Structures are given as structure tokens and as C-alpha cells.
Amino acid sequence: MSDLPRVDPQLFTAAAIDPETAAFNAELEDLLASFPPLWESDPAEARRAREEGRSAFGPLQLSDRATVRTIPGPGGALGLRMFLPPEPRGVYLHVHGGGWVLGGAHHQDPRLELLADTCEVAVVSVDYRLAPEHPYPAAPDDCEAAAVWLVEHAADEFGTDTLLIGGESAGAHLAAVTLLRLRDRHGDVPFVGANLTYGVYDLRLTPSARRWGDRPLVLNTPSMRWFVDHFVPPELRDDPDVSPLLADLTGLPPALFTVGTEDPLLDDTLFMAARWTAAGNQAVLAVYPGGAHAFDAFPTDLGRSALLRMHAFVRTRLA
Fold first, then answer.
1. In CATH, what number does 61-318 get?
2. Which end of the chain is more exposed for a tag (fewer CB within 10 A), N or C?
3. Is 169 an active-site residue?
């Protein structure tokens, strides 16, 4: 008998939150409270506000280094936004967040450019179809198609067939579903690592998501229900293809699970990391005291430390 890996309970105490993080969270909460609640928004208008820089997160930062191409997808042409270092050591399939309703492959250019340069990987971000115009299974179908295309073409296109996958929030959910589909529908999981960041893995909502309430710290219970309701009907949420926490998780690659303690999706990561490990896979659980949802996207020491750890994980898997 051996001891199971344990998470330090002190990480979840108020005393563990550093002053910078606490002050940033307070400012962020005040800022978000000054905007209309997302769950009262029309999805199309919420997208327009983000594209026009009228959301709480300000103007998009686009990179002139990004290249865009299309591949055949299940719903027509499927866009891929790419960052290419001179000699890629691997290819990183990125799946953006946004609750399956918002977001786009062009919303994280600085993050993806940094990943490409720091880890020497070709970053390929998939512009999957969004709900409610394209509900389940459109988004996972598109992500599956992008993964299969990379399996078949990465060596010729990028000079390497070493593949990794990663995403944030709904993107982490879609990344996990993609790995399961590769195993179950295509007989192989040719990805050497999964970088799964504050994902949502049970669309019935885990206890932390249900109990969070309407506190406006990027994500809350009403906005989670708004996202899920647009994406998939209640009668499908027990399906492991919708809620991958319920799936057989055997045969999946090593994964880094990242989450902050001030995130409604805390339980999703804690539960999924435990089930990933119990299925016989390697998993690293990184818990950040005081981290809000999307904390790694903000200019704080906590966010920067999380990105450094993710980059280290990617480099380790490439090796």
C-alpha cells in the first residue's frame, strides 16, 4: 500500500492568498459589478462588445505574427490560427475558452505567441463553431476534426509529429473530450501531454459551481448556467461526451491541471485530476491560492507563475 498524493489544505485558506492577489480580486470584482450581468445578455451582443473592446476586458490584442488557414471541417471550412517558431519541436493544439458561446482563436494572441516562442512549438488554435447558433455537438466535432487533421498532417506541415493539446475553461473541457474521442473513435491518442486549465468537466455543475452564487469574479453560478443552457440540453448532460468527468479515463496522456481557489470550477479540476490519476494516467495538480477564473490571463505574479509552470510542463513533455 502506498500513500496517495495529497493537496496541502493550507492552500485553500484565506491566509494563503497573497496581498497582491487579494487586492487584484477586489478591483476585478468591482469592475465586473459595474457591467450588466452576462446571463442577461444576448450572446451575439456579448460577442460584439468583446470584439469592439466594450467589455470589461478591454480591446483585443492582435499579433501580426499570426497566420490563418482553413481545413475541411464537419460544418464546412474550419479556421486554424497559428503561431510558428522557426523550427518547431512539437505542435500544440489550443482550444479557446468562452463557455462554448463566446471567444475565438484570435482572443489570446499574446499568450499563444509567448507559448510558441518559449516552448518552441507550433501553436494551432481551432476556431470551432459557437452555441447557441451551433449547439452540441458542433464544438467537439470541430475540435475532433482539427486533432485528426494534425495527426495526419503535422509531420508534413510542421516538420514534427509530436503533439500536445491544451485549453482554458470550456477549452479544457473540449480538449478532454477530444482526447476521449481520439481513443474511442480513432483507436489511438497520439498526444504526449494535456495542459488543462480551470476546465469544466461536469456540465450538471459540481458543488463549487452550484454553490458559488452570483459573486461577479469573472465566472459565477448564473453565468455557468447561461453558458451550459446555450450549449447542451439537460437530458444530454449525463453523457460522458458532454461531461467527461463521467467517462472512462484510461489510456490518456500525462496532464497538468491548473486552477485557482477562487474559481467556481475548483471542484471540476479537483475531481478530474483525481479521476485522471485513478484511471492510471499521470497527473499534476497545481492549485493557486486566491486565483480567480482566468487568473493566468491577468498581469499578476500569481498569473505569471502559473504560465511559467505550464511552459515547463510543455517543455518536459516535448523532451
1. 3.40.50.1820
2. N
3. yes
